[in-house]
Amino acid sequence: MFQGFIQIALTLLIVIAIAPILGKYIARVFLGERTLIEPVMIPLERIIYSLGGIRAKDDMTGWQYAQALLYTNFVMGVFVYLLLMLQGILPLNPTNLIAPSWHLGLHTTLSFLTNTDQQHYSGETTISYLSQIAGLSFLMFTSAATGLAVGIAFIRGLTGRPLGNFYVDLTRSITRILLPISIIGALLLLILGVPQTFAAPAVVTTLEGVTQYIARGPVAAFEMIKQLGENGGGFFGINAAHPFENPNSATNLIETLAMISIPAALIHTYGIFANNTKQAWLLFWMVFTIFVILVSVTAIGEYQGNPLVSSILGAEQPNLEGKEVRFGWAETAFWAVATTATMCGAVNGMHDSLMPTGGFSTLLNLFLQIVWGGQGTGTAYLFIYLILTVFLTGLMVGRTPEFLGRKIEKREIVLASVVLLVHPIVVLIPSAVTLAFPNTLSGISNPGFHGISQVVYEYASAGANNGSGFEGLGDNTLWWNLSTCLSLLGGRYIPIIAILLLADSMAHKQPVPETAGTLRTDSLLFTGVTAGVILILGVLTFFPVIALGPIAEAFKIANGQ
Amino acid sequence: MSIVRDITKAIRLTFVLWVLTAIIYPLVITLVGQIFFPFQANGSIVENLEGQKFGSALIGQVFSSDRYFQSRPSTVEYSQGEATTGISGASNLAPSNPELVKRIQEQVEQLEQSDIQPTADLVYTSGSGLDPHITVESAYAQIERVADARGLSEDEIAVFIDKHTQGRFLGIFGEPGVNVLKLNYELDVQQASSQ
User: Fold this and answer.
1) CB atoms B22 and A133 under 8 Å
2) What residues 108-147 of chain B have any CB closer than 8 A to a CB of chain A?
3) Is 0.90 surpassed by the pTM of this model?
4) ipTM, 2 decimals?
5) Is A214 helix (H, G, I), strand (E, B) or coil?
């Protein structure tokens, strides 16, 4: 047990160490300061801008930024949908896969477009190599870059700067951050055993003389951007539990760090933009604390294992259902919490088979959306909570609420409320509809309280743009494909538009000089109150479904049923 | 008018970024892989002394003979069967699902019939259905059975278990696992050469 927690603690230490370094680098990239790879990237970006017809100097308003984002995303979505539907007649399809059904194709496209990567299919049996690299992997880059651009535009607005140019931010996110790290990471994964080939599945005769089909493909390049961009859609059906996606504990460490590093770093990026590293560290520690609590709860649950099974085995054994030996309980528990915290959604063990404590932590992450949070958007949500806290504490002490010297007024609060209200709406309403028709719509595979968790998890994962799932759920149906599409789109674009408009209105406010009466937001007390607001607003909204799902299941198992 | 201009811009930028991230990036990684690391890049496929492919060093197989160490239970039979694309999969049974307890009881009975002391990884199905490893403890739980079937001493086999145990990364991360395919293949080779 001790050894398992040492692994977790060391991984966390690495995160603490690399987050400020990467955060500083990201800040330099978007502040237009010199970076090491500039000599290579500036000519490349010039080519991109001139071919794309983009004038890099134009700053955009919030609404223009949102429009550019929506048009670009729309074009990319249409393109990839066509690619998927035509894969049967396109090359690089050694297993002769036909096009997916129209609704599965639509769900898959929107899911990757929104940085969710929820999958209602198995990669091996559904998606050709061409669709994987030219469609899905392409969206992994652009959706991550879109999120990052929004996060940066929001930080710029909060700190009183012009929002910037969406096309430039999108391009720079790819050329300066995602692509360079992906190239290095993909090569490391490749050396450590992740395949990168266009050859058909290998056919071998096993030692006992049976034919075995070994699926492979261009996995290494796909895998790295999948982790780094918080995408999480697996090349293979079983995602990073597959030995070809994640062959050993070295690749597991690289992939774990890749998924946490950017969301953790962005908090520090904010600190540099706002010239207030103290506040950045306070927020970092706040999120870190929630994260560590959830990891611990999950890890202890998996280590103690399933009492129903332990009684058969005659000894307390860790829960290894849906887990790989090379990762064990500790790394699987850590990954499960990290992947739902960061909205990555890749899995290295099956969440459906986690103990109820794991179901609790993963669901809570999906509900809160700020324990690191998605690429770019998670950091924005964090500051939305901060703005709401400023407003609430302002009300309590009877002062005009101010954040970074800018007054928080009606428009800001309305937009912030929209961001926070979208999530429960796109999660709870469709869950209620689906649960009302358990036999026809739900596709539940595990009976009892866990079945409720399966349905809620699927919509929470779609709405939070996470992508992991309680995968026993029979979700490749017309109902599931289309209803989750609404949660995917609602959970992605409504908050993004609201975030950009909010950033715009903050950027245009006259700064108020700081006086002795100003409520300081970089104090431990204020950060503590923020944590309280997050827990009250985030947890209370969803508490009934948590009680009906994992908590009830935990009591049931504890009673030996 | 401005909508047309914006859409045109979006199409042009999409195309340029597509060439960069969807064509150049994977091709560069593929080229490096195929030229410098062809073994890993093609799936770590292993061949026997006659040059026949008998599996991948990273993917497990089904073993039922007494002469072989058994792998973990798999819901997809280690992709041995009809699906020519290759498959992966897990049970996705919840800890509270009565099916899980029922399946594990059956698995325990089966192991006891083969004189193997049941361990957690030998009764729980793996995440991928392709797990190449078992725990060291599970290997030792099977050593007597394999030794008897092969007429070898347990000490001789223990050497090979040790050889094919993949340790923790840097001695810290992950869990040690015995690669069942490599271990069983080595036993076959050793016995063939000593006869």
Assistant:
1) yes
2) 108, 118-121, 123-135
3) yes
4) 0.96
5) strand
